[in-house]
Amino acid sequence: MTVTTTDLFATHEELLNSALRAITERGYWSAYPESPSPKVYGETAAADGKAAFTALLGKDFPLDQPADEWVAPEQSPFGIPLGVRYPRTSPDALIAAARAALPSWRDAGPRVRAGVCLEILARLHKRVFELANAVHATTGQAFVMAFQAGGPHALDRALEAVAYGYAEQTRQVGSVVWTKKADTLAKTYHLVPRGIGLVIGCNTFPTWNSWPGLFASLITGNPVLVKPHPGAVLPLAITVQVAREVLAEAGLDPNTVQLAVDTREAPIAKDLALRPEVRLIDFTGSTAFGDWLEDNARQAQVYTEKAGVNTVVIDSTADFAGMCRNLGFSLTLYSGQMCTTPQNLLIPAGGIETEAGHKSFDEVVDGIAGAVRAITADPAKAVEFTGAIVNGDVVDRIEAARKMGDVVLDSAELAHPAYAGAVVRTPMIVKVTDGYGSECFGPVTFAVPTESTADSIGIFRETVGEKGAITAAVYSTDESVLDAVEQAAMEVGVHLSANLTGGIFVNQSAAFSDFHASGANPAANAALTDGAFVASRFRIVQSRRPA
């Protein structure tokens, strides 16, 4: 099958225009339904997607890239036998192919690139259940979360990046005849991509965290190497497969997008990151490697999302039960293995005021712990919220945190009814007075007694200012407190949520309305997704001739 690039843009122009409106209006809008219901996707969609996923297991993944060898690095947190083998291509070959693909992709222009990117997203959406199974199996996310975060929500973020990239490239004319008195010049403004992009994926959210950078680089004319985490290759392998199919059918070089697979024993991320041809790097993961990239990959524009200390300031509440339920769910979701999960609960040692009267520090912490217990009481239901522990490092952090203070709520092992090999842990809450200033990724929350709400705000400002955060929250019935915490949040550059007691949680961010991370504190140097996330991926080079 072949498609024309003109047809692709025309096919998806209405969707692009809707996305362009959405990034300016910032209201609720989503292009891809988040419910996996048969009423939305069809009666056989779930079964067909599961069958397509199952058909990939234990085989060579069908990807038309040269292979020096085939590797199968993934181990499922659920114990699902994956055994998918991927072509490992040498960095030299990847770089050479990407360099060869760059001119045609650059010269295609924003309209063609937009059409191709949107067609890739459309085909990924058609395989959303297959992707959901891949995300579920490789990350340990419960299936519904894997479907939503790994599919529709990730697609929305990718579309958002395409919209921002298209807007930035088309905000001015491509050429003009310029006259000043007796002089007339024909001026042309060339959109020049930075060079080869490198996307370094993470284990926990392989599509949600990788697609924005991938599509931001593609829409702005840069070929991309996709380097998945060795534990979560399949979702990004499917992504690359689809991208290459669309590119080839459109008469473009499929090597505009390539898969760069490695193993834990033989990593290639550093090698690729230091190549002079690599001019863009998108990374989500540990602070140590993110800092290394920023310090060493000087030839590239580096976008990082690293670790942070997400903080909740609890001053007072008009809905104590709602606050506890909301925070309890936030702590339980995916066993706290989200960059947006709250870690530090800053609570005055003297307690707080609520609609039900004064609550002591212990009563506040017990209320939140009770909400977690309620969510995790039935193991069969609990695992649909907790998922599985992604790797052994998380278990080690749980054990270390147990020794840091008084354990208010211990982390318990749960047996997964569907996966005997799954490692499942419930959230832990520990009362501490120190040691909470660094991220403890996983189902660990620190309840910190403070001298007062003013002291809580000071601790919030200090810890987030030093270590960064992706999210922050505050509970208070006092407008002056809400204003003070909002001011502190602006100073340290973290997004703030206030008085969440219903069905919206601090963990969540909505594409086209919420920015994910701010790029204004040490946890991340970029935001998903704003103009700055795409604008530096290309440059405008001008030429002038007498007219």
Can you tell me about this structure?
The model has no long low-confidence stretch (mean pLDDT 96). It is built from 18 helices and 22 strands. It has 547 residues and is α/β, with parallel strands linked by helices. The strands form 6 sheets. The protein has a 7-stranded mixed β-sheet, with helices on both faces. It has a 5-stranded parallel β-sheet with strand order 7-6-5-8-9, with helices on both faces. Strands 3-4-22 form a 3-stranded antiparallel β-sheet, with no helix packed on it. The protein is globular and about 80 Å long. The longest helix has 36 residues, at 91-126. Residues 92-493 form the Aldehyde dehydrogenase domain. It holds the Pfam family Aldedh. GO terms for molecular function: L-glutamate gamma-semialdehyde dehydrogenase activity. One of its GO terms (cellular component) is cytoplasmic side of plasma membrane.
Strand content: 15-25%
Oligomer: single chain
Overall average residue pLDDT: 96
Number of helices: 18
Number of strands: 22
- Biggest pleated-sheet summary: 7 strands, mixed
From the alpha carbons, calculate the radius of gyration and give it in angstroms. Answer: 24 Å
Regions with pLDDT < 50 over 5+ consecutive residues?
Answer: none
Cα distance spanning the termini: 44 Å
Structural class: alpha/beta
Question: What is the approximate shape?
Answer: globular
Provide the spatial order of strands within the biggest beta sheet: 15-18-19-12-10-20-21
Proportion of helical residues: 40-55%
